[in-house]
Amino acid sequence: MTDADVLPALTVRRTEPEALFLVETWGDGAAMERRLAEAGIATPAPCRSASSGDLRLIWWEPNTWLVRAPKPLRDETGARLTEALAGEGAVTDVSGAFVRVRVEGALWRSLLMIGGVFDAEAPGFGPGSVAGTVIHHLPVRLDVIDDSAVDAYVPPSYAADLLHHWGAAAARLR
Asked: Which of 20, 40, 167, 173 is most buried, judged by most C-beta within 10 A?
């Protein structure tokens, strides 16, 4: 028996491109959240993420969320978000501003600890958690999808470096 037979699988991959929108609200935050909810878009609490129908909403900073939508729903989602904000916020298509990297497997927390500057093994950092941090000198935003997967959003110019770093680190963990 080898270590590879005992250790769980760990995969790191760049995901297919999807539509990404940065939604910023101003004025009465509670009123904006109600408007979005009435449009079927439930905004998550600070440092949290949630799925809402076909959308994934990720808290980005106060009064700002990243909204991920399937590519075929890009125009519809942008219009829906803009209408819900009713001029008291901005919707910016940032689809080209981030690459999403998916890390899957039982060792995803261990992988994030290599070159990271935060405690990915903290019990509170579970499904629906969001963290902005630096990993291997690169800015990333993490969205914990479930107990075995996390998505990392990184600027495109850093994606190859992050994939290389995590690929080498994953090979050492296996």
From this structure: 20
